[in-house]
User: Which sequence fits this backbone?
């Protein structure tokens, strides 16, 4: 949401925060960025979801150790379905799949595109996946879901099994790959200006850049380039949001003749 907000889009966030100091900080940080928080909730007595992120100083790669207070979870009948018809795209992270399914059903009924970023298999996920239009996951997820090791074959199977209009995977330094309308599109990553300091949130930045491209009327290939560029710029500094680009920064990066994809 912050990526899209900085690129000039209007966004709203639905989610639950703990009532502790960390929760108050997280809520305030989104408010500061201009994200609409009408559908966000604070759960009294709950601890906010916390993550400890270990960064490898040599290459910026990260390992995440996290915990989530069960009181932050949504039951299916608690899903914030009123948000589903408020925008052009509903983007989900697939925690609490039964609740996500209700939101996705409401979104589809309102003509809203459903996008998702999924890394792991959660209970109830198979019922959610047929409702997703844009499913771009981590590199490992298609194999986890289908049991197929070959990346291209796993994407073909994922699309055939669940009917998503577009499936794909992010591949770190190798960029990203999309499968849609019977064709594969691959887009290389970009070198991080000044070197990669932290990959935390690069996948989220990628999704923001990709959706921004689609919002702007770009084709899938151009949207992939924008997504990879947004992710590269995010990796310039420590933190998931610190270096997320503005639209001027992204345009400057894309128009710089010295910027070349990783080969």
Assistant:
């Amino acid at each position: 949401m912050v990526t899209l907000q900085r690129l000039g889009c209007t966004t709203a966030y639905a989610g639950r925060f703990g009532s502790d100091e960390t929760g108050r900080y997280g809520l305030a940080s989104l408010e500061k960025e201009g994200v609409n928080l009408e559908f966000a909730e604070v759960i009294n007595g709950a601890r906010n979801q916390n993550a400890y992120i270990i960064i490898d100083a040599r290459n910026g790669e990260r390992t995440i150790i996290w915990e989530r207070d069960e009181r932050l979870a949504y039951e299916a009948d608690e899903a914030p379905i009123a948000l589903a018809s408020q925008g052009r795209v509903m983007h989900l992270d697939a925690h609490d799949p039964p609740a996500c399914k209700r939101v996705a059903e409401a979104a589809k009924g309102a003509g809203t595109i459903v996008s998702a970023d999924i890394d792991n298999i959660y209970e109830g996920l198979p019922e959610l996946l047929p409702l997703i239009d844009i499913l771009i996951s981590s590199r490992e997820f298609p194999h986890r879901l289908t049991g197929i090791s070959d990346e291209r074959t796993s994407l073909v199977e994922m699309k055939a099994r669940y009917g998503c209009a577009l499936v794909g995977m992010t591949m770190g330094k190798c960029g990203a790959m999309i499968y849609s309308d019977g064709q594969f599109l691959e887009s290389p990553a970009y070198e991080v200006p000044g070197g990669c300091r932290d990959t935390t949130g690069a996948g989220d930045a990628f999704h923001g850049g990709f959706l921004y491209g689609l919002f702007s009327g770009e084709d899938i290939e151009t949207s992939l380039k924008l997504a990879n560029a947004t992710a590269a710029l995010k990796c310039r500094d420590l933190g998931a949001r610190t270096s997320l680009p503005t639209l001027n920064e992204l345009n400057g990066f894309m128009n710089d003749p010295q910027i070349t994809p990783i080969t």
Remarks:
- The mean pLDDT is 94.
- Residues 2-11+75-255 form a domain with the UDP-N-acetylmuramoyl-L-alanine:D-glutamate ligase fold (CATH 3.40.1190.20).
- The chain has nine helices and ten strands.
